From TrEMBL:
One of its GO terms (cellular component) is membrane. Pfam families: FxsA (PF04186). The keyword Transmembrane applies. This is UPF0716 protein FxsA. It comes from the Bacteria. NCBIfam families: PRK11463.1-2 (NF008528). The chain crosses the membrane at residues 12-30, 37-59, 79-108. Keywords: Membrane, Transmembrane, Transmembrane helix.
């Protein structure tokens, strides 16, 4: 019987483990410099700031998105900024000084713009629209459309449908 467990480490797990060790090292360094209580106070303060900034920035970005939609523009930049603000707030809420620094940097609009420009260059958005009246050019054997002939179905009077309740039939008359 073969081995069902993977022997190679998961890269995301390795990165998470490294991030945890970096945060612990940050706690130790800051704790030595300013003391344990001050370190705990900074952690709690950053969590509260994350919640407050998430609320304030989220409402601001929501109104910007609404105004962009009202003007007829696609709010792609505002959506990206909103996602980055949510990530920044989550990074502030997570205990740790390195995540706090990254979170605070993401609250700066110019940094969000740089990230959006970098991501938008690497991203391809594909959209398609079909009116439903075009002939498909692919094999219909995999389609979920059922094509019935005229003798395969029949229509009936909707007043005498078995799916209607008696009171519905009375109201129709």
């Amino acid at each position: 019987m073969g081995n069902i467990y993977r022997n190679t480490p998961n890269i995301a797990g390795v990165i998470l483990l490294i991030a945890i060790f970096i945060e612990i090292a940050g706690f130790i360094i800051v704790g030595k410099q300013i003391g344990v209580l001050a370190t705990l106070g900074l952690i709690i303060l950053s969590m509260v700031a994350g919640f407050v900034l998430l609320r304030v920035q989220g409402i601001t970005l929501l109104t910007k998105m609404q105004s962009e939609l009202a003007a007829g523009h696609m709010p792609d930049r505002e959506l990206a900024h909103g996602a980055l603000v949510i990530i920044a707030a989550i990074l502030l809420i997570i205990p740790g000084f390195v995540t706090d620094i990254i979170g605070l940097l993401l609250f700066i609009p110019q940094i969000r713009d740089l990230l959006w420009k970098w991501v938008s260059k690497k991203m391809i958005v594909r959209t398609s629209f079909s009116s439903g009246f075009t002939k498909n050019n692919y094999d219909n054997s995999h389609s979920q459309t059922i094509d019935l002939d005229a003798e395969d179905y029949h229509s009936s009077d909707p007043e005498h449908s078995p799916w209607r309740k008696d009171d519905d039939n009375k109201r129709l008359n």
